[in-house]
Description:
247 residues, eight-stranded parallel beta barrel
Amino acid sequence: MTQAPAPPRLRLGVNIDHVATIRNARGGDHPDPVRAAQIVAAVGGDGITAHLREDRRHIRDADIARIMAATNLPLNLEMAATEEMLEIALRHNPHAACIVPERREERTTEGGLDAAGQHNHLAPMVTRLTDANIRVSLFIEPDARQIEAAIRLRVPIVEFHTGKYAHAQGEERETELRRIADAAALAAKNGIEPHAGHGLTFDNVQPIAAIAQFAELNIGHYLIGEAIFIGLEESVRKMRELMDLAR
Ligand code: PXP
């Protein structure tokens, strides 16, 4: 009997935005997100994620080049679908750009991008990023309608918003998990690489990491928060270990 092939190694992208949030609280240059990126590289993280927000509340323009120069890890730049962000992405040429919805008053990215409703706005952006050899990803809800929109937009990657799963309990959490697993399978079946992120912690990461189609998880707030207590190295190392155990 032939055995099912082992799922590909699940990459861990570490979102270092909240190192910059703490730095910005005092307006100086400490703690430096560049140092965080170097630690992530040293402990075997697979990538750095950073979200340049319109209001620059965490990562700032000057951080992008510094982060890219500091390690060999690929940078996944999260960006709103605006002309300003597109120009910045094209100027820096990160490995990947993840298009996220952005509302100024929100505390964090509260839901997925409406790729279905915004096709005409997104299509030229996807083309320009793709033409610059940037891998485009769309941060969407785990929902067939949004995946179909991603297929029409010909993006190579979708990242599923795991916030609802992370905040749900009991039966509702199981339902969300099934929705995410079905979405990952649908994306993969259509040749799109599925990623996931938002709200993942040591306690809730494993059922997501066990979904074989996932190629990458992007995790930030919890890892940086936990780093206060156990250090960033240990925080990343432990997340890596939990992800590996789940595969
Ligand atoms: N992926 C994307 C696209 C995000 O916008 C974020 C941050 O909101 C994350 C992953 C990481 O989420 P968290 O900080 O909750 O781990």
